[in-house]
Task: inverse folding
C-alpha cells in the first residue's frame, strides 16, 4: 500500500478549497476513512459490540486495590530537572526566592520564544500579576507560613482552560483577547495551594492535531532537536516542563494530548480517570473523551498536582463519582514499589511499534520484573481497533460541538483543519452510533482484563517525534501516517476513561525521547504512580534534559 503523502503549503490550501465543495468533501471523508483504517470497523463481528452506553462512568475491573505496605524512599532528583520539592527546599533555605524564580521564568519564556526556530511555550504571560504573587509567597516563606510545597512554584496552563485576566482561545485566531473573568476550577485549586501561573501555554487549533503544528500560532519546536515537532495538543505545557521552565503544568487529553507531548518531550504526563478532575472552565467540556491532567518533571510532581486538582466539583457533574483523594496519598503511593504487581503485555500491540520504542519499553518492563513485578501475556482483541473508534468519537463530537464556529469562521481556520472538518461533516450518523457500541464492547473487554491484572503496559507512541520544517509549521500540514503513529496506543485510555500515564524511559538514535505507557484500573492512579516512581528510583525513567534547557536556579 502506498504511503499517504504529507500535504502542506499551496497543495494543502488547494486541498482545503476542494474539500469544502460538494464534490470534494466526500473524497476527503473517504480518504481519512481509508488512511486511518476506520473502514475496518464495519466488518467486526456482532459480539464485539455492546449496548449503547448511556453514561460515561469508568468501569473498574475489581474493587479498589489495598495499598501495599512497602515504604521505599521517594526517587531522588539531585541534579536536573528542578522538581517542586527541590524548588521548595531552596525557598525554605533562602537559597532561592520566589521573586527571583518567577522573574527568571518570565525572562526565560521570552528568550525561548526569541530563538529561531521558536521554543517559546507561552501565548501570554502573567507579568506583574505573577510578580505580585511571588512577593506574597516570599513573605509567607520568610514568616514560616507557606501554604505547602507548591507555594511559589511556577506553573503554566493550557490555553483552553480559563485563567482570570488572560484570554482563553483554544489555539484559534478568531476568539477575541477578552480576558477570562474567573479561573477554571483546576486553576483556582492550584492558586489556593500557592502555585503561581506564569502564563498560558500554546496548543494546536481546537486541540485537533496531536502532532504539534498550528498555522495560527508560532509553535514551539522540540527542545531536544528543533528539527522535530514537540507533539500536541498540549504542546506548550510539554515544552515548558521539558525545558525546565516549570516543574509542572496543566494539559488536556482527548486522544493523547497530554501523553503525546510528554512522550515526545521526554517528561511525565497522566490522563487521569474520567471524572477525577473537574473540567469546569475549560473550552471543550462537551466531549466524552477529554480529560484535564498534569505534565511534570517527575512522578512525584504528577501525583502532587493531581492531589490538588482532583476531586468532586459541583460545577462538573462528571466528577460526582470521584472518590476523595486523601492528602498526600498519591505521593505516598510513589513509595510502594512493584513487588507483586501484575502487568499485562499484549504482544500484538508491542510488535507494531518501532524497534527503538520496543527496545526501551521492553527494557523498562524487564527492569520492573526484576524488581518483583509479574509480566502477564494477554491479548485484548478490541485494542487494535481502539484508535479507529477514537478517531470517529473525538472527530464527530468535535465537529458537532464546533458547528457554530464552522458556520461562522470556516474561512479563518487553518487549511488542515478545514479539510478535517469537511470530512467529518460527511460521516454517517449510523457509523458514529456503531462506533459507540464498539466502544462499549472495548470497555467490557478491558474491565475483564483488569479483573486479573493491575496495569496494562503499552508503548506511548509507535515511534519518536516527527520531523517538520519551518515551511510546514507555518502553513500547517496533513499527515495521516504521523497522526496514527502518535495516537494508535492512546485512545484506549480516553474511550474507557481509565488512567494512563506516559513515562520517559529512553531515547532513540537521534536522542529523541521514548515513552512507556502504563494504564491502570478505574480510580487507581496510585498503582500507575507506584510503578512509574519505581522506574525512576532504579534509574530507568527520568526526564531527559534536552539540548535547549534552562535552570531556574540560574
Result:
Amino acid at each position: 500500500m502506498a504511503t499517504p503523502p504529507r500535504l502542506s503549503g499551496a497543495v494543502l490550501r488547494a486541498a482545503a478549497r476542494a474539500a469544502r465543495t460538494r464534490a470534494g468533501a466526500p473524497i476527503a471523508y473517504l480518504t481519512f476513512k481509508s488512511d486511518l483504517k476506520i473502514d475496518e470497523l464495519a466488518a467486526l463481528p456482532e459480539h464485539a459490540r455492546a449496548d449503547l452506553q448511556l453514561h460515561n462512568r469508568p468501569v473498574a475491573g475489581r474493587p479498589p486495590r489495598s495499598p501495599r505496605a512497602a515504604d521505599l524512599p521517594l526517587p531522588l532528583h539531585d541534579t536536573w530537572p528542578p522538581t517542586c520539592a527541590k524548588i521548595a527546599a531552596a525557598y525554605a533555605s533562602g537559597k532561592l526566592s520566589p521573586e527571583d524564580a518567577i522573574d527568571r521564568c518570565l525572562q526565560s519564556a521570552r528568550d525561548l520564544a526569541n530563538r529561531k526556530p521558536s521554543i517559546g511555550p507561552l501565548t501570554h504571560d502573567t507579568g506583574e500579576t505573577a510578580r505580585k504573587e511571588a512577593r506574597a509567597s516570599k513573605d509567607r516563606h520568610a514568616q514560616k507560613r507557606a501554604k505547602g510545597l507548591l507555594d511559589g512554584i511556577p506553573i503554566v496552563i493550557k490555553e483552553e482552560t480559563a485563567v482570570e485576566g488572560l484570554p482563553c482561545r483554544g489555539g484559534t485566531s478568531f476568539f477575541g483577547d477578552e480576558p477570562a473573568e474567573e479561573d477554571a476550577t483546576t486553576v483556582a485549586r492550584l492558586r489556593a495551594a500557592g502555585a503561581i501561573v506564569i502564563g498560558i501555554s500554546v496548543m494546536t487549533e481546537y486541540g485537533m492535531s496531536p502532532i504539534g503544528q498550528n498555522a495560527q500560532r508560532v509553535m514551539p519546536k522540540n527542545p531536544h532537536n528543533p528539527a522535530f515537532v514537540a507533539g500536541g495538543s498540549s504542546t506548550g505545557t510539554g515544552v515548558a516542563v521539558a525545558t525546565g521552565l516549570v516543574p509542572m503544568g496543566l494539559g488536556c487529553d482527548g486522544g493523547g494530548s497530554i501523553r503525546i507531548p510528554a512522550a515526545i518531550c521526554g517528561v511525565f504526563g497522566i490522563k487521569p480517570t474520567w471524572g477525577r478532575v473537574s473540567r469546569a472552565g475549560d473550552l471543550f467540556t462537551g466531549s466524552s473523551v477529554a480529560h484535564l491532567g498534569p505534565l511534570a518533571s517527575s512522578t512525584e510532581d504528577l501525583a502532587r498536582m493531581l492531589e490538588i486538582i482532583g476531586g468532586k466539583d459541583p460545577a462538573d457533574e462528571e466528577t460526582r463519582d470521584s472518590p476523595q483523594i486523601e492528602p498526600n496519598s498519591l505521593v505516598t503511593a510513589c513509595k510502594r514499589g512493584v513487588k507483586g504487581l501484575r502487568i499485562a503485555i499484549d504482544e500484538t500491540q508491542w510488535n507494531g511499534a518501532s524497534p527503538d520504542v520496543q527496545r526501551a519499553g521492553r527494557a523498562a518492563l524487564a527492569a520492573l520484573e526484576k524488581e518483583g513485578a509479574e509480566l502477564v501475556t494477554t491479548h485484548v482483541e478490541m485494542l487494535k481497533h481502539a484508535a479507529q473508534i477514537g478517531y470517529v468519537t473525538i472527530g464527530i463530537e468535535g465537529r458537532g460541538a464546533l458547528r457554530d464556529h464552522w458556520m461562522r469562521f470556516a474561512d479563518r481556520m487553518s487549511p488542515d483543519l478545514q479539510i478535517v472538518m469537511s470530512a467529518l461533516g460527511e460521516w454517517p450518523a449510523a457509523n458514529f452510533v456503531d462506533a459507540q457500541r464498539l466502544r462499549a464492547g472495548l470497555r467490557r473487554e478491558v474491565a475483564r482484563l483488569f479483573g486479573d491484572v493491575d496495569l496494562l503496559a503499552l508503548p506511548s507512541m509507535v515511534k519518536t517525534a516527527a520531523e517538520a520544517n519551518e515551511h510546514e509549521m507555518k502553513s500547517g500540514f496533513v499527515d495521516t501516517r504521523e497522526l496514527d503513529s502518535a495516537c494508535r496506543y492512546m485512545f484506549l485510555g480516553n474511550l474507557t476513561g481509565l488512567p494512563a500515564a506516559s513515562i520517559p524511559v529512553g531515547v532513540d538514535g537521534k536522542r529523541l525521547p521514548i515513552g512507556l505507557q502504563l494504564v491502570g484500573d478505574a480510580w487507581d492512579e496510585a498503582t500507575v504512580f507506584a510503578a512509574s516512581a519505581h522506574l525512576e528510583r532504579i534509574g530507568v525513567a527520568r526526564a531527559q534534559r534536552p539540548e535547549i534547557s534552562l535552570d531556574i536556579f540560574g
Summary: The chain has one domain: 72-537. The longest helix spans residues 429-449. The two ends are 52 Å apart (CA to CA).
